Amino acid sequence: MSTPRFTIYDTTLRDGTQGTGISFSVVDKIRVAEKLDAFGVHYIEGGWPGSNPKDAAFFDEAAKRSWKHAKITAFGMTRRGKVRVEDDAQVQMLLDAQTPAVTIVGKTWPLHVTEVFNVTLEENLAMIADTVAHLKRHGREVLYDAEHFFDSYKEDRDYSLRTVKAARDAGADLIVLCETNGGNLPDFVERVTREVIAELGQPVGIHTHNDGGVGVANALAAVRAGAVQVQGTINGYGERVGNCNLTTVMPNLQLKMGFDLGLDLAGLRDLAHFVDELANVPHDIRAPYVGAAAFTHKGGLHVHAVQKLARTYEHVDPALVGNERIITISDMSGQTNVIVKAAKLGFKLAKGAPEVAKILTEVKRLESEGYEFEAAEASFELLLRRHLGQQRPLFELEEYHCSFRRASEAHWNKCEATVKLRVNGHREYTVAEGDGPVNALDAALRKALRPFYPAIERIQLDDFKVRISNGQLGTAARTRVLIDSTDGDEHWGTVGVSDNIIEASWLALVDSFEYKLGKDAPKS
Q1: Nearest to residue 185, comparing CAs of 159, 211, 160?
Q2: 360 in the same domain as 232
Q3: Same domain flag for 257 and 354
């Protein structure tokens, strides 16, 4: 077994979703995994196979895809007590997930072994060793998460070491020390990690939680002691107050501690906001590196100094993490973000060019109305196309109407939508019913466009999210709708914002069709 290189292990899709208010659909999970893979993360933990239909569907879909950088990883636990590993259904599900790597969690703390698992300490060691060896026999890379390791180490150092040695001796590729309760401090984590590495004779990984506010600090302390993998989540999602925040720890490792993670950190802010959008969570403006306030300077001495020498009040160049310097008295802030994001979509724009200023003005206007483009790249690309004269509207809208009727005694609901358009000089008037207003509008719009754009049949709406952007206004608040669409090969996101949820949905729906049909249309 060779010494592993330094790796980042993302558990947003499993540990992160255990956080209060965090939930992803199957489509969301695939999109997040694809984004993490493109960013360069080394391991992506997809969930617990068999624990719920959503995770099972994720692994089915993941097995059909090619991954450029990451190893998709299934998560589970050791075999049950007094059950042969070959007979444990949960262990078999880990193999059925068809992932190249598997992470299993096992008990370290005698308190948990005897009081929660109700097995003997020796049986627990056998459970660890049997499961690791079984997975290795089936050709999997095995990561062993030693749960509650640091709390256990305080109470029973010898038994704690016996558990990780059992995993090592059974062939585990990496032992990961878990600071599960999040209450220990960095000096203790660093000392224990160093001692364990000496006892095992090989490097370890680190998995920390943030209950004491030091999740990132504890991870960095373990790295100083010799840990070669950090496990965490994007934006620090996780149970209770969350996990080690990868959007903080990754730039600290690469920019401050000199680890070559192979990551293009210029995409970090975009990644953080993308995940927030799909999770339907407001962005933390004060998040280190990626928050809107991270490099914001108000008037006075700070602004004067930073304009002369940025590093007087900035610990890194904001462009390194995809963020920007914002000086509140300046109207030039933001061009870099537009140019970088446009470049990723294939548009070459020069800073200071008139079209960049116009695009930036439009983006700021839309954002002031409640738009967010991080998870709606298709809507942003359409905005670019329109300003660059590369987009022809699919149709001219005359009118649309949507109605909802409920017959309480008959126990039925009905939504009906009518659409009046002009398409290539032809007037179209269509009517359709649907399960809801958006479904009815979708059906009516498709009926009108199908004769002119047959490829619309391939476009499917995968997911639909609604967020209130200024809830303090109550029922008058503005609504942001995010729609995920696919043609079976590509996935894309579009956004619409309005005081009216129907109009917001219509705007996102039209963007979805215009993006794909316009992109695939033959160039004249």
Answers
A1: 211
A2: no
A3: no
Map tokens 């589970």 to a residue.
76
Three-state SS for 308?
helix
Q: Which residues pair with 406 in a beta bridge?
A: 413
Check the CA dihedral 111-75-178-193 and report its sign. Answer: positive
- Report the distance separating Cα 212 and Cα 451, nearest Å: 61
pLDDT (tens digit per residue) in 84-111 = 999 999 999 999 999 999 999 999 999 8
Residues 35 and 21 in one domain: yes
Question: 39-51: per-residue pLDDT in tens?
Answer: 999 999 999 997 8
The tokens for 12 are 């947003």
Please report whether residue 173 resides in a domain.
yes
Report the CATH number that the domain containing residue 404 is assigned in CATH: 3.30.160
Number of domains in the chain: 3
Instruction: For residue 423, give the nearest of 442, 401, 398, 449 by alpha carbon.
Output: 449
- Among 218, 235, 263, give the residue marking a domain's end: 263
Q: Which domain holds residue 437?
A: 398-452
353 and 407, same domain (yes or no): no
Sign of CA dihedral 272, 273, 276, 277: negative
Average pLDDT, the chain: 89
Nearest to 432 by CA among 457, 400, 396: 400
Q: At what angle do helices 26-39 and 268-279 cross, to 10 degrees?
A: 170
In this predicted model, what pLDDT tens digit does every residue of 413-457 receive, in sequence order? 788 999 999 998 899 999 999 888 889 999 999 999 999 999 999
The structure's pTM equals 0.76
